Amino acid sequence: MVTKSWLYDAIIYIYALSLLFYFSDFVGPNRSAKRMGTGLLSFVWVMQTVYLVFNLASHDRATAFSMFETLFMLSWLLVTVSLVVNRFFRIELFVFVVNVLGFSMLALNFFSNPKVSPMLASWNIDDEVLFIHISLSIASYCAFVVAAVFSGMYLILHRQLKEKKFSKLMQRLPSLDKTDHYSFVAVVIGAPLLLLGMSLGVVWIALQGNMSLFFDPKVINSWFVLLAYIFYLVQRLVLKTPGYKLALWNLAAFFIMGLNFVFANFYSTFHQWS
């Protein structure tokens, strides 16, 4: 039976990358992103199928399936259904939501399986979950910083144009359309990364068995950060909010993210760095 940790890690990272492309296509139709997301998700399905075949071949028919095996098959079925829906019905939101659930289930299964050995001998399973959780979260924060910078540039340029102050600074800034677009793209990248990172955070808490951690100020505020950026996307894609107001909201969302670090250091019970 295939139990190599590197295979599990590969599936998790490729699965996360496929969801990033799917989300990008969902918020703004992009055929290249959709093809890439579908290709990566198909590869995840192939790796899951290989694991499933080995697992079923070595399974003792005299015993019932374990919870790990049952949930793994459920995750495999979710990926299968999402690929079928994507191929014949093209309901992007359904595909994305189903695969976020499948990703969380797969992560919980992988890292709660006692037969899986960590990639590094000095690590334990919780360390590996945290490593991936932190990596995805940091990447999302980086994207949000980029989005905030472009939103700030948008506001500066908007004010200069409104007051008809054609300075040299304006010549060095991209156009309003470009700064708005770049900020949007950064949020499109950051939001799913944060969602996936938070889903692994939920997995880690579940492995710890301490449900009170779900009510930690840092955890609660992280949901507010995610909702703030989702609302930004709703305003841009559904409500067609003007760029100036979008830039203001983007900076407000960034401010909420900044509060997250304050909560982490002074109020959180397990997210402190000093």
Automatic annotation (TrEMBL):
Domain Cytochrome c assembly protein intervals: 67-270
Keyword annotations of the record: Membrane, Transmembrane, Transmembrane helix
Keyword Membrane: yes
Pfam families attached to this UniProt entry: Cytochrom_C_asm (PF01578)
InterPro entries according to UniProt: Cyt_c_assembly, YpjD/HemX
Keyword Signal: no
Single GO biological process annotation from the record: cytochrome complex assembly
Molecular function, one GO term: heme binding
TM regions (residue ranges): 6-27, 39-58, 64-86, 93-111, 131-157, 182-207, 219-239, 246-267
Protein name: Cytochrome C assembly protein
